[in-house]
Amino acid sequence: MTQELMMPKPGSIPRWADGLWLALLSIYIVAGAAIVPFHGDEATLFYMGRDYHYLFVEGDLSKVVYNLRWPEERPELHLRMMNGSISKMAYGWVMAGNGRALSDYNTLWDWGEDYQENRERGKIPHAELLRQARLTSALQLALAAALFFKFVRMVLDEPTAYLASALFALHPSVLINGRRAMMEGSHLLGLMLVLLAGAWLLRERNWRAYLLLGVCTGFAVASKHPNALPAGLIFLVCAAAPLSQLAQNKFRQWRAAAKNLAGLLWAGILSLLVFVFLNPGWWRYPVEAAQLAIDLRSRLFDKQLASRSAYESAAEQAQGFFDFVFAGAFQYFEVAEWATFDVIADQISNYESSGLAGLFIGGSGLLGVFCLALAALGAFHIARSPKVRACDHALLLVWMAGSALVALVVTPLAWARYYLPLVPALVILVSVAIVAFARANQRMMRSMRKIKQSPDCSATEPD
Fold first, then answer.
1. Taking a C-beta distance cutoff of 8 angstroms, is the pair 80, 49 a contact?
2. Separation of alpha carbons 278 and 218, rounded Å
3. How does residue 10 score in pLDDT terms, banded at 50, 70 and 90?
4. Which residues, 6 or more positions from 176, have their beta carbon under 8 angstroms from its beta carbon?
5. pTM of the predicted structure, to 2 decimals
6. What's the pLDDT at 461?
7. Cα distance between residue 176 and residue 423, in whole Å
8. Cβ of 23: how many Cβ atoms within 10 Å?
9. What number is the average pLDDT over the span 160-189?
10. Mean pLDDT throughout 88-94?
11. Closest Cα partner for 238 from 182, 277, 197?
């Protein structure tokens, strides 16, 4: 029986081909990391890597953990409370692994100065250290692509998984942001971990599945706080079935439902513990730290709404959503002045001519309309397909619709990376539609061959 289960289904792709495919995607993702154009936030993340030095080189927790007596305007405090911890610790590890002292860290990037002024003031990381940090981010992105492939294959099928993973790994915005030494590599990795853990839980519902969901959720939110949204949606989907059982008011179902809801509660508590564990700044005063993080996020949101890059109307917001999600628009920088920096222009030219920048097919309204139509057809196919489990219907559609709605309504700025978490959802829907068209065409061609081969359709001579 075990050997029978391990054998591939007739017509299915062998597992070794999956490994080869993912290896090729990973090589492509990692290969372009060294030459991706620089972004000022890379310097900021390196600056935040000081926390690793404080903790693991100096062994001084007091420099990291939140102290109620600290003035709220400390830049390190703001960055520590508002941002994820995974990436900055990874970049601090890169610095320590190269034997660098605290004095070797760059100072905090100043967006009020141009590129050359920041460079002269020592605010750009050393080139080799930046290359190594980008490698750690690109490796996380490559792992995210592999988990994305696994997730799509689990909830849909192999052809869709192959196509969706290719579109994901070749998406210019994914590559630009995921390769940089910022938070997007770990952000996407965390998202994929939560999706995969949620899909597994809907199949197994045992203590290991709840454990995995809790750990993955804690890691995901620690990688970047906006991952709390998809994680919350996945918890909601996982709670739907036991809540429905409770509503039926049958004792046997009530016991199973209570057990499953208790498992979700345990997973939620575990995710909070993992999140706090991965954020040493929260250890002493976790409640106060959470309140400060929410307050700082609120202030940042108000500042963004007042900035020049903010949307001025709901129509602009909808247009930005369309451009960055469906039309495939991408950005190398969000500050308009960067277009005047010759060094950045040269980096962009070198990157785009390398053959490692992905598929440059986006940016047109016509393509956006085409992708929107494919996405709608893909969503319709998922909702109606009898081959997709009911729980997977809910997982996919609730995650996609909920994330899209929040991004459409809440996103304040015309920044491509704010829409990055929607790329996996889009490529799944587009891939589902394309695979469905291909299968329909294949069935039609097979039917036509059968008709031609039928004796009833053979030509006869007239009397």
1. no
2. 8
3. very low
4. 36, 37, 330, 331, 332, 357
5. 0.92
6. 44
7. 13
8. 12
9. 97
10. 95
11. 197
Count each helix (H run) and each strand (E run) in the chain, helices first: 20, 0
310 DSSP β-pair partners = 413
- The residue type of 423 is V
pLDDT digits (tens, 9 = 90+) for 356-382: 999 877 667 888 999 999 999 999 999
**More confident: 250 or 391:** 391
Question: Of residues 449 and 272, which shows the higher confidence score?
Answer: 272
| Residue found by looking up tokens 């009911």 in the block | 390
Measured between alpha carbons, how far is residue 320 from residues 104, 116, 310, 362, 407 in Å?
Answer: 40, 31, 11, 14, 10
> Tokens 């509503």 label which residue?
247
Whole-angstrom distance, CA of residue 268 vs CA of residue 246 = 20
Dist. CA 275–CA 283, nearest whole Å: 10
Alpha carbons 432 and 378: distance in angstroms, whole number: 5
CA distance 8 to 1: 13
Q: How confident is the model at residue 453 (pLDDT cuts 50, 70, 90)?
A: confident
Residue 186 amino acid letter: S
Task: Kindly report the number of other CB atoms within 10 A of residue 339's CB atom.
Answer: 11
> What is the token pair recorded at 39?
């972004």
Q: What is the pLDDT of residue 72?
A: 66
CB atoms closer than 10 angstroms to residue 315: 9
Structure tokens at 225: 């706080």
**What is the Cα–Cα distance from 318 to 419, expressed in whole angstroms?**
12
Q: Is the dihedral of CA 29, 415, 148, 293 positive or negative?
A: positive
**Helix 251-277, helix 228-248: angle, nearest 10:** 160
- Report DSSP letters for 283-342, one per residue: SS-HHHHHHHHHHHHHHHHHHHHTSTTB--SHHHHHHHHIIIIIS----S-SSGGGGG-H
CB 153 within 8 A of CB 388: no
* Percent with pLDDT over 70 in the chain: 94
User: What count of Cα atoms within 13 Å lies in the side-chain half-sphere of residue 72?
Assistant: 9
pLDDT in tens, 279-300: 999 999 999 999 999 998 888 8
Spatial neighbors of 418 by CB under 8 A, at least 6 apart, are: 324, 407, 411
Residues contacting residue 113 through CB under 8 Å, at least 6 positions apart: 121
Query: Over 50: is that where the pLDDT of 135 sits?
Result: yes
pLDDT averaged over the chain? 90
